[in-house]
Fold:
Amino acid sequence: MLKPYFSVHTIEAGCDEAGRGCLAGPVFAAAVILPPNFFHPLLNDSKQLSVKKRDVLREVIEREALAYSVQTATNFEIDKINILNASILAMHRAVDGLTTVPNFLLIDGNRFKPYQQVKHKCIVKGDSIYASIAAASVLAKTYRDEYMLALSKNFPEYGWEKNMGYPTLFHRKAIEEYGITPHHRVTFRLTNKQLEFPFEK
Structure:
């Protein structure tokens, strides 16, 4: 059972990201402030949930959260400042977007840069421990999948509607055959062969 909060008498925002390991597309991050008594039996780390359950939870979270925000860092930003810094940047943007100002941040993972004067706590596998982080993981994942599904219609060769930009064998072979798109992260190892990258930022 997920814990409802880390510290009582605080306005906590759970933060998580989706898409760090992908070869294409932005990294998405979400920040969510849940009511102290929030509970939903399906809520868990988004990676442990089916697409159908994530979609159900997204509606519940958006309806019942005290505040939520989903933001991105682009593939160009990822290439410029690296994926860790871009993930943290997206999280900062997500907190910026909250309509309620939190006084404590719960961060999934073990790395973060302080956000203004707000205290934070990094928690490894926090999306399977705290409800607010799990909720953020669901929003980040569903928003990113929705984005990649839309993008796949313009780039059907890469199978993004199935792999969401992750480095599957199909995706890597498509890059070898068709080259890269303006949405690929050129600083990542995209194939087993080094490619020339013709697209300018």
Observations:
- The radius of gyration is 17 Å.
- The beta strands are 12-18, 27-33, 67-73, 104-108, 119-123.
